[in-house]
Amino acid sequence: MGLRTYIREHFIEDIRPYKPRSLNKPEKLIEIVSAWKGLELIIGDIVTQFGLPQERCIEFGVEFGYSAVVFSNFFDKVIGVDTFEGDIHTENKTEHFQQTSERLRAFTNIQLVKSDYKDWIASDDTRYNLAHVDIVHNYHDTFECGLWAARHSDCTIFHDTESFPDVRKAVKDIARATGQQLYNYPHHFGLGILVDKKSITKRK
Ligand SMILES: C[S@@+](CC[C@H](N)C(=O)[O-])C[C@H]1O[C@@H](n2cnc3c(N)ncnc32)[C@H](O)[C@@H]1O
Questions:
Q1: Torsion sign, CA atoms 15, 117, 58, 136
Q2: How far, in Å, CA of 73 to CA of 77, rounded?
Q3: CA of 59 to the centre of ligand 1 (A)
């Protein structure tokens, strides 16, 4: 691939680096293996910088619950949707809904739902303050789930924008389709952040 083609495919003019103003460790965390570790430090900063209301959060891709517990620090209610069966990119492919529900039992504002994201988005029309997309890291599913999330939430975040080019491409295409502003935080495998351009004025 030539340099020009590479730049055209991998860069959109409007992508901005996300620069946290402060890093803060949330009070509630669980000790579990997760590639998400490190991102807990910027969630409070995202909430503050974009002035997000802190009522409802939805997560697609819970796995063992690391990020869901992080969100439970910041939102009154967190819904976590997952098949709890793993996917082609996860190491664990053994069904673990009961085990994960048990682990997260103390976090009473988290509701876990065993469902494919496709079934969930077909019947939910709720508005969320934050949506997190961290499902199977292919273009098609990230785009479909992420487009629904971007249309139903004030801010949508996507894990693995640095480690999975398909995720990065899907997030860029959702930014184009919705007209939302795209930020990227390059650490901990990358976090794409989409927000309504209106809420950006609150950052200044
Ligand atoms: C990378 S893991 C999520 C990691 C998690 N956010 C954390 O904090 O460590 C991806 C998860 O997405 C789930 N998943 C994959 N495809 C899915 C689908 N179509 N619907 C619902 N969940 C799905 C898998 O079962 C897996 O648990």
A1: negative
A2: 10
A3: 9
Instruction: For residue range 20-53, list pLDDT tens digits in order.
Output: 999 999 999 999 999 999 999 999 999 999 999 9
Other beta carbons less than 10 A from residue 122's beta carbon:
9
Domain ranges of the chain: 23-203
Task: For residue 135, report the distance from its CA to the centre of ligand 1, in Å.
Answer: 4
CATH number of the 23-203 domain: 3.40.50.150
- Rounded Cα distance between 60 and 145, Å, is 8
Q: Which atom of ligand 1 is nearest to the CA of 85?
A: 25
Q: Please give the model's pTM, rounded to 2 decimal places.
A: 0.94
Phi and psi at 16, nearest 5°, equal: -120, 140
Supply 55's token pair.
């009522």
The two beta strands, 181-185 and 191-195, are: antiparallel
Q: Is 154 in the pocket of ligand 1 (CB under 6 A)?
A: no
